[in-house]
Amino acid sequence: MSIDTLEDLYLEQLKDIYSANIQALDVTREMAKAASDTDLCDALRAGADGIQSGITALEKISEGHDESPSGEHCKGMEGLVTEARTHAIDESFGEEAAKDAMIITQYQRLTHYAIAGYGCLAAFADRLELDSDMAALKTCLDASYDGDRTMTALARGGINKDAVA
Q1: Residue 44 lies in a domain
Q2: For the residues 94-105, what does the mean pLDDT come to?
Q3: pTM of the prediction?
């Protein structure tokens, strides 16, 4: 597909963030199982639910443009998922709190990709005057920011402190 217009770019980036979300969903669920802190487990499960909601929203938006959301493989998220599995799931830790701190680190990296993707898409939708798309993308963006803030609060609230010992 040739990208000649902002609309072409918009449709291509919908596929990219859809692929990113599909990949992030599985590793987020894996990190929820690997985490030891109850609040972190709950936050990761909520994060997985939010990712699933984003997938559903992207499917609806794509259908509204007579497009399939699939067909793109997000290599950026592929790298982030590989890093998350390597450093948060497969790594050996002496302290559970250190593992939880690493899980937060890796989840936030995934989330920051989503924030960038949804932010750009919402700006594109705004310029293209796709108001319902923009509203749905803004909801996804806000949920991503909320997930990031939750992880920061958990880290500052005690997980990082416990990992110092």
Answers
A1: yes
A2: 95
A3: 0.94
